[in-house]
Amino acid sequence: MAVIGFAGTIAVVTGLIHLYLWKRLVRDTTRRGRWRRIGTVAALVLAVLVPLTLVTSRSGVTWLVWPGYLWLAVMFYLLVVMLVLEIPMLVARLALRRRPAAAPTGPVPTDPATESLIAEPALVGGGAPTEPPAPAAPPVPTPAEAGHDPGRRLLLARGAAIFAGLTATGLTGYGVSTALGPPRIDRVRIPLARLPRAMDGLRIATVSDIHLGPLLGRPHTQRIVDLINGLDADLVAVVGDLVDGPVAELGPAAAPLADLRSRHGSFFVTGNHEYYAGVQEWVAEVDRLGLRVLENERQEIVTPRGALDLAGVNDPAGEGTGATGGPDFEKALGGRDPQRPVVLLAHQPVMAQEAARYDVDLQLSGHTHGGQIVPFNLLVGLEQPVVSGRGNVDGTEVYVTNGAGFWGPPVRVGAPPQISLVELRSP
After folding, report:
1. Smaller CB count within 10 Å for the chain: N or C?
2. Per-residue DSSP letters for 210-233?
3. Which CATH number goes with the domain that contains 352?
4. Terminal alpha carbon distance of the chain
């Protein structure tokens, strides 16, 4: 039922978007005939393709994934560009709509020589006077003279459609090359008030949203592992959304995680997508690969230079699932030594609002993908307090990594894939 509801919602939304795009890109740019019929059929096929792709990709059917997700990205940018063009298009249409000159309303001037002929009826053959000829009706302006030239309006609509099409395909092409390229290393230094001076410089390699699935497999994981191992980090934190499918299907793709190296261990917390893919099986699999899964618990990290607490909470998607359950901050953070700094791993940045109540020094998160596709980041910002990079929520430092993979369209614009090296600094 959840899948049906999801598909129904997507079908309605994409149907309305395609109706708008059909009006602007097909009806407004063509005359009645073969080309309009072809465009209409194409719009209908593409409208069905989007929800069909989203549903079948969850069912293991992958042959629609590439065309469906690429069209989803192109559709998004066509919509954005056409909406932006609505105002200048309206101004242009108003400029074309010139009013015809008004007919004169005062007395019509006459020639003095003929004024008498107008004043007195002419006599024909000595008979009765004849009436003067009725004045001619003013000419009716043509559509072009009235400012409604169909040719100009058609040219304007086609120009806007060509601009939108080139912009959408160009941005999508750039986004594909960025999304499929290697993750970039983001290095950030974050001071913690309670961090002992001896632990200054402790480094945590942080990655999220790897999203193994129909488009990203074992080579993607291996590339991430190689990049993290090259950072020579003290800790490794994988903060959720590792997979988009069951262990039976994606277990081999996740296998390179067993090769992760760090001085004090590798750790994992669940993201919302684990709960769509068999969370209990994945928790067991990740543990088997050598990552410590922090399920509403904390681990004391003891180094020759001092100690800190590393805690982890489950994603809110676990609420009411009967599996690992949702986040339990009291279980993970209650009763700890208040003098010791604590770093919390939590998939969603919004969880910092609760973490701040437990005096958490730093929360490491993912989930947002940095917005993934500009200007979608503006919508993400309505839900999450931090979309990308460093922020502060009620006194708790928050760092959000962009994620190393993608969800949906294999496209990233304005938010490149990322692995973050967080260096903790003492005051």
Report:
1. N
2. --BSSS--HHHHHHHHHHHHTT--
3. 3.60.21.10
4. 53
